[in-house]
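Hypothesis: this fold can be encoded by more than one sequence.
Test: take the structure tokens below, design a sequence, compare later.
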């Protein structure tokens, strides 16, 4: 089915000037960018986004990293978009990511891992609504 998923290009990949290369991977895989914005996340915005990880030992570092510079946030649309985006990203830990994936090519560590992508339909819906209003989504 046609799905939408939330994607974030994290501060490390934005700082590397890799937005265009990463967008190109989405588009070559048949995913359409139907909403996008660049944002400097506040601590509150980052904490709310990652609320499910609040009790994890890496939460403080994660929020610190995600607020360390601007991020590029987009909604990707396409057939099986959630799984397709996760395939393109590769494993959370770049050391375990398959060659040719975004994380294998652009990420340095499990914290600075270049991209985020929703992991399931329910989280995609929540995460898209966390960043975008309905009037900001442009289906093509
Ligand atoms: P992301 O998909 O954005 O979701 C949570 C992030 O926490 C994850 O990517 C990683 O960048 C970061 N993180 C840091 N340590 C861990 C860990 N041990 N397990 C999972 N995620 C981690």
């Amino acid at each position: 089915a046609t799905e939408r998923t939330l994607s974030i290009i994290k501060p490390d990949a934005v700082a590397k000037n890799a937005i265009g290369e990463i967008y190109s991977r989405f588009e070559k895989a048949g995913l359409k960018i139907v909403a996008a914005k660049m944002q400097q996340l506040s601590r509150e915005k980052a904490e709310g986004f990652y609320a499910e990880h609040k009790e994890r030992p890496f939460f403080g570092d994660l929020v610190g990293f995600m607020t360390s510079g601007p991020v590029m946030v987009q909604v990707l649309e396409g057939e099986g978009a959630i799984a397709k985006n996760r395939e393109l990203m590769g494993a959370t830990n770049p050391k375990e990511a398959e060659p040719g994936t975004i994380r294998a090519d652009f990420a340095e560590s499990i914290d600075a891992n270049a991209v985020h992508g929703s992991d399931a339909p329910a989280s995609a819906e929540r995460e898209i609504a966390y960043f975008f209003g309905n009037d900001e989504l442009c289906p093509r």
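The mean pLDDT is 97. The pocket of adenosine-3',5'-cyclic-monophosphate is lined by residues 53, 58, 62, 92, 110-111, 113, 116 (CB under 6 Å).
Hypothesis status: open.
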